[in-house]
């Protein structure tokens, strides 16, 4: 039996060793790349370096050749480019076929995608088709000495951090939310190899047709995920009209107003403004938490902010554990006082 086990292990090792390189899917809409793709090239470069393989980007679309240079400038050394009319709009079927075709041909060891609407859809479909594992919404990625990707993410409602590995299948696939990983440095002069590929997909065979694109205007154009200054309110705000206090402070800073889930569930703020595990992940220069206790599900969405200022009347509130500056007191006095002081400056 010991010999059988050895044989099994050897067969598995041989199967896995056919896979190499770290791939990042460059998500684009109308030729404009999602920033999370560049963030993933940053973490992808570290992973590729630690297992001594190449960092590659996968660009799929129509008229998207310009993204290859961008991918080089953010650290990729090779780009697999599929530039065909059938890829003009994102649709699961053609992108799935294209991505699986590339995986089958080039066998990547690790595949990373943004945990966006598109990335989540495509990653799940690809992992199912190629019969491998997928860890969604990772907050940390590194590689162990057996080249297994350690994928860390919150689990059980955010109460623990789980490290997940996919040690018997390749590629190892993970999605990461926007703003979780830092942006890598841009080197515009960097260059690399472009591998032009094409995939035999007929428009007539695709079940989904795009009839019209309707832009989402519900969030009123406020992008809390990309904001540099965020003033967030929680249950301590007591009523929806009190959020005007936060808006005034945000206006002084040139920032936006965010919210905890309690404030969103109470109907005080729209869901687009929610920060946290089931909301957005943010990484602003300054995050001001007003009347927010600091539950783990909130913290995972904002704890990487450069500076965190917490205002809470409970000095034991967990938010103070991650705060750069903590103010213990009544937010209804403190917030207007800060706004007034900023107006004087
Ligand atoms: P509370 O915990 O009630 O805190 C209110 C705070 O306001 C208290 O600390 C209080 O001391 C303070 N306060 C009250 N009055 C004042 C005053 N006048 N001045 C100063 N301070 C005052 N939560 C999120 O935020 N985002 C998520 O994405 C998210 N996802 C979740 C996912 C799951 C699966 C689960 C189970 C929970 C999730 N939650 C999320 C909910 C989370 O567990 C907490 O319930 C929530 O974050 C609490 O919101 P809060 O801090 O606004 O309210």
From TrEMBL:
Q: Is the Cytoplasm keyword given for this protein?
A: no
Q: Which gene encodes it?
A: etfA
Which branch of life, at top level? Answer: Bacteria
Which keywords does the record carry?
Electron transport, FAD, Flavoprotein, Iron, Iron-sulfur, Metal-binding, Transport
User: Coiled-coil stretches, from where to where?
Assistant: none
Q: What is this protein called?
A: Electron transfer flavoprotein subunit alpha
Q: Which family does it belong to?
A: Belongs to the ETF alpha-subunit/FixB family.
State whether keyword Iron-sulfur applies. yes
